[in-house]
Write a structure and sequence with these properties.
alpha+beta; paralog of FGE (formylglycine-generating enzyme); three-stranded antiparallel beta sheet; 14% strand
Length: 363
């Protein structure tokens, strides 16, 4: 028999936003947010009883060398999640089934201390062109398998095979496609904890750059080069938002396509998250993955939370469950040199069908 926790998660997973391409809208009303203290994070106004949380600032450096496309995230503790933002629950729509609390506490609460081991994460999210290389080599699924059909607005405007969109972030992947792409690169999907640590930095900022809400220095406010085939869905080209960068140099964590992670989704997971290297629930818990990031839509800020009477774009601690998104890969830290990257680059060329000379060069 299904236990109460699983049943609640199942009920709420039925009310997911399955938004095409990438848009995350989380509207809350109430008060309370992380303080300006960077290491000693505590509640400010409207304290909900969580109290202050203190982390050990000791950083564990990576033993291995970064590849050309990723950066080291030192190991150590950080604050994952955020203080519960009190709000008045909306009335349950007549055609929906609402769970306990209507709705229950937000899925990014309570905040908790998590310790991660050192790891590497891609500096940028994957582009359509990069994913297409994997597809052309026969290692990644294509549009029809991803979208379950070969027509419709989403297929016409977001497909990675469109040359006009090769510089843009891939945004139509299922977990199958995202995992295949990372394997193609010799990497893996990051865990949700690894993604949030990379996005918030060692001091658990609200945004990759700090606690200040994004403005036009952080994301592309006035796009002028939207591909001709895009009438509705829009994301900036990868690299177009240089202001969205973390202390360790990870770019566009929240101003690009939302990114799928390793963890399957559990609404209540933050109530029982393991302290060290949490991996999320087992793969059979829920068919939907956690997706993180994405505050922009068609060149404007769409995702937002409201606290202390101020509307702020969705911070890096907001999470969502979904079946489709983009990808940014990670890899575990091992005491090895950059020759590992050379091996996987060579492997990619072989899988693409490139002919190699005895010295490994193209013929």
């Amino acid at each position: 028999m299904m236990n109460g926790k699983v049943e609640r998660a199942r009920v709420w997973s039925d009310h997911r936003r399955f938004v095409q391409c990438s848009v995350l809208v989380v509207a809350l009303v109430g008060g309370g947010c992380g303080s300006e203290e960077k290491i000693n994070i505590s509640t400010t106004t409207n304290d909900d009883g969580n109290g202050g949380l203190t982390v050990d600032p000791t950083a564990v450096p990576c033993q291995g060398a970064p590849w050309s496309d990723d950066v080291c995230i030192p190991g150590g503790e950080f604050i994952m999640g955020h203080n519960l933002i009190p709000y008045t629950p909306p009335q349950c729509p007549p055609d929906e089934v609402c769970g306990p609390g209507n709705p229950p506490p937000r899925d990014y609460a309570p905040p908790h201390v998590v310790k991660v081991s050192p790891y590497f994460i891609d500096r940028y999210p994957a582009t359509n062109a990069e994913y297409k290389e994997c597809y052309d080599a026969g290692m990644c699924p294509g549009d029809c398998k991803i979208l379950k059909s070969c027509g419709g607005t989403m297929y016409n405007e977001c497909r990675f095979t469109d040359p006009l969109q090769w510089a843009y972030p891939v945004s139509t992947l299922t977990a199958e496609g995202a995992e295949a792409y990372c394997q193609w690169k010799g990497k893996r999907l990051p865990t949700e904890a690894e993604w949030e640590r990379a996005a918030r930095g060692p001091k658990s900022f609200d945004y990759p750059w700090g606690n200040e809400a994004p403005d036009c220095t952080r994301y592309l406010c006035n796009p002028t080069d939207m591909p001709a085939s895009w009438s509705k869905y829009w994301l900036a080209p990868v690299g177009a938002n240089p202001g969205d960068v973390s202390p360790e140099g990870v770019h566009e964590m929240i101003t690009s396509a939302r990114q799928l992670v390793h963890d399957t989704y559990d609404y209540y997971y933050y109530k029982h998250t393991p302290y060290e290297n949490p991996q999320g629930p087992g793969p059979d818990f829920n068919i939907y993955r956690v997706a993180r990031g994405d505050i922009t839509f068609r060149g404007r800020l769409d995702g937002h939370v409201v606290y202390n009477g101020v509307i702020s774009p969705s911070p890096a601690w907001v999470r969502v469950d979904t079946g489709v998104g983009g990808v940014r890969c990670a890899r575990s830290d091992v005491a090895a040199s950059a020759t590992g990257e050379q091996f996987f680059r060579l492997r990619q060329r072989v899988l693409r069908g490139d002919r190699l000379t005895n010295s490994g060069g193209a013929q």
